[in-house]
Write a structure and sequence with these properties.
The protein is α/β, with parallel strands linked by helices. 32% of the residues lie in helices and 23% in strands. The protein has a single domain (22-173), classed as Endonuclease Chain A (Endonuclease, Chain A, 2-Layer Sandwich), CATH 3.30.870. The chain has helices at residues 31-41, 61-75, 95-103, 141-145, 157-173; strands at residues 22-27, 45-50, 53-54, 79-84, 109-113, 124-127, 131-135, 139-140, 150-155.
């Protein structure tokens, strides 16, 4: 057995996610269906942090289903907050960003962009402050259909709250997107 690299932190003697944790592994073509099901089950709040969230003009069924689930959740009164990486010059607000804004135009959906020079490469979704989806999947059709990715669903209120607290400041400092 190889020795643990010295650069890694010492393992904790306490559970990493809390005693309440349940973890489910999602691979490749499982993510869109799992996200849609989780959004459909959301009762009060959804917090999404994504490097890319880009629906096509004519989205494939997986993306169309997720967009429809987000709008249905907003119609139910779910507060949806989406934090995206900021497109820096020479990038501009592209038609794909515009497509996201136009497709998710709803009073209960707020989309903001990270506003520093650092890249926000996180792929995170927190559902009702009790479950987390964390991994390598972007909210994009290539990620849903053709990329090799892995993500996990972690059912743990204590872990979900830790992540919400960690991203609260970034959310508060973020831009509100195109005017």
């Amino acid at each position: 057995m190889n020795a643990r690299p010295s650069s890694l932190p010492e393992p904790s003697t306490r559970p990493t996610f809390g005693d309440d944790a349940q973890v489910v592994l999602l691979r490749d073509n499982q993510i869109a269906g799992a996200l849609t099901a989780l959004v459909n089950a959301t009762a009060s709040a959804l917090f999404i942090v994504q490097y890319h969230f880009r629906p096509r003009f004519r989205p494939h069924p997986e993306m169309a289903g997720l967009l429809a689930a987000l709008l249905a959740a907003a119609d139910r009164g779910v507060a949806i907050r989406i934090l995206l990486n900021h497109p820096h010059p020479p990038r501009r607000w592209t038609p794909r960003h515009g497509a996201l804004y136009s497709r998710l135009k709803h009073d209960n959906i707020i989309i903001r962009h990270h506003n520093t020079s650092e890249i926000l490469h996180t792929k995170l979704t927190v559902i009702d402050a009790h479950a987390v989806v964390l991994g390598s999947h972007n909210y994009s059709e290539p990620s849903f259909r053709t990329s090799k990715n892995v993500s996990v669903v972690i059912h743990s209120p204590s872990f979900a709250l830790r992540l919400l607290n960690a991203y609260h400041r970034i959310w508060e400092d973020a831009d509100n997107g195109p005017g």
